[in-house]
Design goal:
With 800 residues, the chain is of the alpha/beta class. The chain has four domains: 184 residues, tt1808, chain A; 136 residues, no CATH class; 243 residues, no CATH class; 166 residues, no CATH class. 50% of the residues lie in helices and 10% in strands. The protein has 34 helices and 17 strands. The strands form four sheets. It has a seven-stranded mixed beta sheet with strand order 1-2-3-5-6-7-4, with helices on both faces. A five-stranded parallel beta sheet has the order 9-10-11-8-12, with helices on both faces.
Length: 800
């Protein structure tokens, strides 16, 4: 096979457009084959003539027009008809998906007859695929699908030459040697049209999902717990919060030393600049040219990993002394600017605002401007225009004002002069912190990075900038950042239990009345019957602090479910402590009785399972239903489990790019188990949306450039912990369509014995469907899952 390139083939097809369309008038079958079909097969798709037979004898069936071979085995039979033999309605435009043969047959009897004829040839020869064409219209399908009538067969339709051009990639998958060798559309055409799954048991519950009920005591304490947590969150940008709550990963010690050294080095270089005579706006001091160019300091890390906290800790604690002589400008890109083109203006306006508000420096004040541009203004008298106007004081002042406005309007260069002026006049160095860029799109990040590099170089300033690792490395490979060579540092994972411990201790201090500078005093909200029982709230936070320190109870669950995202971790912690499912009255009683209480994992799991509701709802829960199905197909009960199990076995090493594999590998795996393309696509998309798997991301979005995927800690938690937990299995019963005639007692939520019996029945049902698991490894794992779940239920029954 010649090396086949889809883009080259497409260009060849476009070259033949006029030639092929010129045969739109009816021509006989022989000419159709010679002048249209042969051109597309051999000149566009590059089939070798040695790989194609014509008029192949098929015993009693007759003679097949074209038979295509790969490795000497027939793979495709193509039946040709004369041009003008229309297979589909001429006004019909088909989408880029397969259609039912029965629908096509009802619209065109000639298409049905031709396909049936070709299927007979293909069945005789043992070819997997079959097609028909009149030159301008092409139909493609599989020869045989088990347990499926012909009317239910799925067919790809290219109804015109324009359709071939607009969906050329799919056309190549169907008819090129490369596409047939890869069976590129096999799983799509094997997608049987199945009956939808029956209604879920939850459909019988009135008002599903019902809100969780709370007693007055729970309501009071839950409100105050949540309020204290929210007050603490408002303190996150303050010095005292960073001092009390920030947890520096063990790997950051050397980085902090490096940053302090860089800051001290910058100050020493600024001292050299202070000794240089004032420079004009178009020429920096000669000595500055001999100093090393400043480079931005890039802080890398996924969203929620603590880059912003790292910068605050750096400023307020670790490098506080080194930064004491710095003017510090914080540029927060969280929601501004809207477009990359607006970045310079946003930066200039923020610098002006912060210098004015934080340092009482108005860079556009008349006296300040004239001080910054003093040398330029003095030198005006020596210019040609200056000499011309110097005799007329009024004209000279107008000329001078016009020149000053020109210099100030070049904001980047003017700020370079401003900062040099501040270094000389106020003995200050400059540090700029560009935060939250990692949440913005790639173009904005790259533009901001290039601007940061110019700021570091031209303003002789320390510039810190936060980016996502994928953005930085991809942009480097694309050549956007490859010439700048910044200093880079990746934020490490802190001790999660210590993060929670310090947060709970901080919240406890607030509840006990310890007054931090920014913390408002507590008072009852007017009009609400809420008892602000702060001492009891403080005891709960103290108990949580104890559990976090010891890694008891819910703490390991939070670590797993948060997927390493500290922001998500803290939000989950807030949900649990303020949930209506948490029995705060029992917790207070336990604390008063024994002095401490650790929220057990099953109570935390229950909170994350149900949220603010009495029933499990997959749309609102932190967890997914592993056994949900969309069609009346028992094998679908295990498709999500199959994907997670498969991905969990991918080693995290360099060869697999930290556990990522191409999603096409998963499609191939699921196809080998008998799952259709549509079921596979829906499953992968759903697992990604629910954060059980993740794509190699750019700015929080999957890109068209990269389809690599891997399992997340949340996915692993489902697979290795949640799946055999009684609470989880009991909760998802009402969300799982059942294909057998089983009676479910879905209204016995308060009776633990009935719930145990119901869950055992559910396990028996799932186990009876495990015969549809086609992966022998997963089948073995399923047996272990069932045994572990049964053991968990027995332990609960024994305790009762």
């Amino acid at each position: 096979m010649e090396s086949f390139r889809e883009d080259v083939a497409f260009l060849e097809l476009k070259k033949r457009t006029f030639e092929i369309n010129s045969y739109s008038d009816p021509i006989n079958e022989a000419n159709t084959r010679l002048k249209i079909i042969d051109v597309i097969i051999f000149d566009v798709l590059l089939w070798k003539k040695s790989s194609v037979d014509v008029e192949k004898y098929c015993r009693a069936e007759g003679y097949a027009d074209y038979v295509f071979y790969i490795n000497k085995k027939p793979v495709l039979v193509l039946e040709a008809k004369k041009s003008g033999a229309t297979f589909a309605l001429p006004v019909r435009k088909f989408e880029n998906r397969p259609y039912l043969f029965g629908i096509l047959a009802s619209e065109s009897k000639s298409a049905a007859a031709a396909l049936q004829q070709a299927i007979g040839y293909a069945a005789t020869l043992g070819a997997r695929y079959v097609a028909i064409s009149n030159g301008l219209q092409w139909f493609f399908t599989v020869t045989f699908v088990p347990d499926q009538d012909l009317d239910q067969r799925l067919v790809y339709v290219f109804e015109s030459f324009d359709a071939i051009c607009s969906r050329f990639s799919k056309f190549c998958n169907c008819f090129s040697e490369a596409g047939l060798m890869l069976n590129a559309v096999c799983s799509e055409l094997n997608d049987n049209l199945k009956q939808p799954a029956p209604a879920k048991p939850s459909s019988r519950i009135h008002g599903y999902p019902a809100p969780a009920s709370r007693n007055i005591f729970q309501n009071e304490l839950s409100y105050i717990l949540d309020y204290v947590w929210q007050v603490m969150s408002q303190d996150e940008g303050t010095i005292q919060f960073v001092e009390h709550c920030y947890v520096s990963p063990d790997t950051h010690g050397d980085v902090m030393s490096l940053v302090r050294n860089l800051l001290e080095k910058r100050k020493k270089e600024d001292e050299i600049l202070r000794s240089v005579e004032v420079c004009t706006i178009d020429k920096l001091p000669h000595k500055m040219a001999h100093l090393p160019s400043e480079r931005p300091f890039v802080v890398l890390g996924e969203i929620g990993r603590g880059k912003s906290s790292f910068l605050k800790y750096l400023r307020f604690v670790a490098a506080k002394e080194s930064l004491s002589n710095y003017i510090q400008i914080e540029l927060n890109f969280l929601d501004r600017p809207d477009n990359a083109i607006d970045i310079p203006l946003f930066i200039y306006e923020e610098i002006y605002r912060q210098l004015h508000e934080n340092y009482e420096i108005n860079i556009y004040d008349n006296n300040f401007v004239r001080g910054v541009l003093n040398l330029e203004i003095k030198n005006l008298t020596n210019t040609l225009e200056g000499k011309y106007y110097e005799e007329d004081d009024r004209l000279y002042k107008e000329f001078e004002l016009k020149k000053i406005q020109e210099w100030v309007s070049d904001k980047h260069t003017y700020l370079a002069k401003v900062f040099h002026h501040l270094k000389r006049g106020r003995l200050k160095s400059i540090a700029l912190f560009l935060d939250n860029l990692d949440r913005r799109h790639t173009d904005l990040q790259e533009t901001a990075f290039l601007k940061a590099s110019a700021m570091a170089r031209d303003w002789a300033s320390m510039v810190f900038i936060c980016l996502r690792p994928e953005t930085f490395y991809r942009s480097q490979q694309a050549g956007v950042m490859d010439t700048i060579a910044p200093i880079t540092f990746t934020v490490g994972q802190p001790d999660i239990s210590l993060v929670l411990k310090r947060r709970f201790a901080y919240a406890k201090a607030i509840a006990e009345g310890s007054q931090f500078e920014s913390t408002p005093s507590f008072r009852a909200v007017p009009g609400r019957e809420i008892c602000l029982d702060l001492p009891r709230v403080a005891k709960i936070f103290e108990s949580c602090e104890f559990a976090a320190r010891k890694k008891y109870g819910i703490i390991p669950v939070l670590e797993a479910v948060s997927n390493g995202n500290i922001r998500q971790l803290l939000e989950l912690a807030r949900r649990i402590i303020s949930s209506g499912h948490l029995d705060t009255k029992k917790i207070i009683g336990k604390i008063e009785e024994s002095g401490s209480y650790a929220i057990p994992d099953f109570e935390g799991i229950k909170t994350l399972l149900f949220g603010d509701y009495m029933h499990f709802d997959a749309e609102k829960s932190q967890f997914i239903n592993l056994f949900d199905i969309r069609h009346a197909d028992p094998s679908e009960h295990f498709v999500r489990l199959s994907v997670l199990s498969y991905l969990s076995k991918i080693p995290i090493d360099a060869d697999y790019y930290l556990g990522y594999i191409d999603e096409s590998t998963i499609y191939d795996y699921l196809s080998s188990l008998g799952y259709s393309r549509s079921v596979s696509e829906y499953t992968i998309r759903y697992l990604a949306e629910k954060n059980c798997i993740r794509y190699f991301m750019m700015n929080g979005e999957k890109t068209r450039y990269d389809n690599r995927v891997r399992i997340t800690p949340l996915g692993r938690f489902h697979l290795f912990s949640l799946i055999h937990t009684f609470q989880y299995l009991d909760a998802i019963i009402i969300d799982t369509p059942i294909l057998d005639a089983i009676s479910w007692d879905i209204f016995s939520d308060s009776d633990i014995i009935k719930r145990l019996l119901r869950t055992e029945k559910f396990l028996f049902y799932l186990d009876s469907k495990s015969i549809y698991i086609q992966d022998p490894v997963l089948n073995s794992e399923w047996k272990e899952i069932i045994e572990t779940a049964k053991k968990n239920i027995k332990e609960i029954r024994d305790r009762i």
